[in-house]
Design brief:
383 residues; alpha+beta; Rhopdopsin 7-helix transmembrane proteins; Alpha-Beta Plaits; 2 domains; 5-stranded mixed sheet; 13 helices; 7 strands; elongated; GGDEF_dom
Length: 383
C-alpha cells in the first residue's frame, strides 16, 4: 500500500483544524476550562505546521522545515500545559519555547539541517521527551480517579514508543533526500500522528465530560458554604451505611452537633460572621474524623458525623475533641475575636440493633440534653 505523504499531510491538517474547532465549541459551552482552549490552540498550531510542511519546495526551507517542525514541538508543549491546567496546576511555558529553540539552533548545524534522517531523529527525540512529560502529567499528577484518565495518558505514552522506533529507523534506513518524496517509513510517520490526534481528541473530550459530570454530581450532594454533604445526601448515604453496618455487625456512632446561640451571633456580628463560624466548624470536624466517616451539614447550624467502626468511648472522645477545639479557638471577623461553642449528642449502636431512624432520634435527644445542661457539652445517650 502506498502512503502518499502530501495527501496524509492534508488529512492531518484538516483533521487538526476540525478537532480544534470541536474543542473551541466545547469551550464556549464551559468557558472557565482553560485546558480546552489550550488543547484547541495546540491543534491549531499543529494544523498550521502541516500546511508549512506541505508547501515544501514552494516556500523557503526556513519556514517549511525550521518553523514547521518548531511549531509541532510548540504544539506538544502547549498540550502539556493544557494537561497541567486540567490538573489545576499553573502553566509552565518554558517547553513551548525551549524545545522549538533547540530545533531551530540545530538546523544551523549542516550535519543536521542538510540531512532528512538526522532531522527526523532529532525531531523524534525532542517529541519523545515532550510526549513522556505529557503522559506523566496526565497520569501521575492528577488528584482524582477519573476512569478516562488512564486511556488519555496511554495516547502520548504509545506515541512515545512509536517515536523510539522512528528515531532508530531514521538512523538505520535509507531515506529519500526530501520528505515529500515519500516512502513507507515517511508515510507511516505521518499516519501515526493522525491516529494519535484523533484518539487524543476523542478521549480528551470524554475525560473533560467525565470530570464535569462529577463536579455537577458533587455540587448536588454538597453544601455550598462548608463543602460537607448536604442534608439529603447525608441522610441517604448514612442510612445506607447503617444498614450495611447492621448486616456486617459493625459498631457505628452518630454525632449530632448544634452551634450554641447561633442566632445571637448572627444578630450581633452579622451573617458573615455566622458563615465564618460554620466554615471553621466544618474544618475542625473534618480534621477530627477519618476519611471513611460521613460528615454533613443537616440544618442551618446543625451538623452530623457518622463514625464507622467506632465504639461509645471512642465516639465520645472524638466529640469532646471537636467541642474543645471549637471553643478554644475563637473565630476572627472584622477585627473581633468571637468565641463560639457547640453542643453534641452521641449515640452508639452495633449489629442488629443498628437502625438509622432510631439512631437519629437517640442522638437528637442526647443533643438537647446537652443544650438543657448548659450548652458547650457532650451528652452520650445510653446504648
Amino acid at each position: 500500500m502506498t502512503l502518499d505523504v502530501s495527501t496524509l499531510l492534508v488529512v492531518l491538517a484538516v483533521m487538526s483544524q476540525m478537532a480544534a474547532l470541536s474543542l473551541v465549541t466545547n469551550w464556549f459551552q464551559r468557558w472557565p476550562d482553560r485546558h480546552v482552549v489550550m488543547w484547541a490552540l495546540a491543534l491549531q498550531v499543529g494544523a498550521a505546521s502541516c500546511v508549512l510542511l506541505l508547501l515544501r519546495g514552494q516556500i523557503p526551507d526556513f519556514l517549511s522545515i525550521g518553523i514547521a517542525n518548531a511549531g509541532t514541538l510548540a504544539a506538544l508543549g502547549i498540550t502539556w500545559n493544557g494537561a497541567r491546567a486540567f490538573n489545576g496546576r499553573s502553566t509552565r511555558w518554558w517547553p513551548v519555547v525551549a524545545f522549538p529553540a533547540i530545533w531551530m539552533i540545530a538546523m544551523e548545524v549542516p550535519a543536521i539541517g542538510d540531512s532528512l534522517a538526522h532531522r527526523i531523529a532529532l525531531g523524534s527525540l525532542l517529541s519523545l521527551i515532550l510526549s513522556l512529560m505529557l503522559a506523566w502529567e496526565i497520569w501521575a499528577k492528577g488528584k482524582d480517579h477519573l476512569v478516562w484518565r488512564m486511556p488519555f495518558a496511554c495516547v502520548p505514552a504509545l506515541h512515545a514508543v512509536f517515536l523510539v522506533f522512528r528515531f532508530i529507523a531514521a538512523l538505520t534506513l535509507d531515506l529519500p533526500p526530501d520528505l515529500l518524496d515519500g516512502g513507507p517509513f515517511i508515510g507511516l510517520g505521518i499516519l501515526e500522528p493522525i491516529l494519535v490526534m484523533f484518539a487524543a481528541t476523542i478521549i480528551g473530550l470524554r475525560l473533560s465530560d467525565e470530570r464535569l459530570k462529577n463536579i455537577l454530581k458533587r455540587a448536588a450532594l454538597t453544601d455550598g458554604l462548608t463543602g460537607l454533604l448536604n442534608h439529603g445526601a447525608f441522610m441517604d448515604l448514612a442510612r445506607e451505611r447503617v444498614e450495611r453496618a447492621r448486616d456486617q455487625n459493625e459498631l457505628i456512632t452518630l454525632l449530632l452537633f448544634d452551634l450554641d446561640r447561633f442566632k445571637q451571633l448572627n444578630d450581633r456580628y452579622g451573617h458573615a460572621a455566622g458563615d465564618e463560624a460554620l466554615k471553621f466548624f466544618s474544618t475542625i470536624v473534618q480534621r477530627c474524623v477519618s476519611e471513611a466517616d460521613f460528615v454533613g451539614r443537616v440544618g442551618g447550624e446543625e451538623f452530623a458525623a457518622l463514625l464507622i467502626g467506632c465504639g461509645a468511648e471512642r465516639g465520645r472522645q472524638v466529640a469532646e475533641r471537636i467541642r474543645a477545639e471549637f471553643a478554644g479557638d475563637p473565630i476572627r471577623h472584622a477585627g473581633h475575636r468571637i468565641t463560639v461553642t457547640v453542643s453534641v449528642g452521641v449515640m452508639t449502636v452495633c449489629g442488629q440493633r443498628a437502625d438509622f431512624e432510631s439512631l437519629m432520634v437517640a442522638a437528637d435527644e442526647a443533643l438537647y440534653a446537652a443544650k438543657r445542661g448548659g450548652r458547650d457539652l457532650v451528652f452520650q445517650a445510653a446504648s
